[in-house]
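Help!! Second protein's tokens look totally different from the first
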Amino acid sequence: RPPRSTLFPYTTLFRSAVDSFKGKVSVTTEEDKFLFSVESVCGLPPEKIVEKASEVISSKSEEFKKLVSKI
């Protein structure tokens, strides 16, 4: 497993934010979840970018499964 600092590159900023909400926010880790940020220069809202990206990944995963099943 990579060092924690590579898993959370914004540790200092993140910790600062959490510290400012001490007692109101609880931060835990879960193996199947992660935080990420989305920036756009095309005017699309981040929600739409993530939605479209998940559609593309899903489609490519299905295509990959079909190809693998032929092996």
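Here's the second one for comparison:
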Amino acid sequence: QVRKCATVARQVEACRTVREAGMNLSLMVLLRLAGVEGSERNARNNGRFLVKAAPTYGAALTVTPVPGTE
């Protein structure tokens, strides 16, 4: 489980603030963060977030957990 310090709504609001200030917005999302069983849900949530955040640039990284680590 990932413990985030901000809600999606707060993150989207921060992205809007950056865009309104005339700055480029670059975002990165993590794929497979929810494991193989949650991959589809994670991908859909990432997609919804990216649409709302409307970044200038976007990137996606695939998470590969190491067994025995948190």
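Reply: Different proteins will give different token patterns, so don't panic. The first helix runs from residue 8 to 20.
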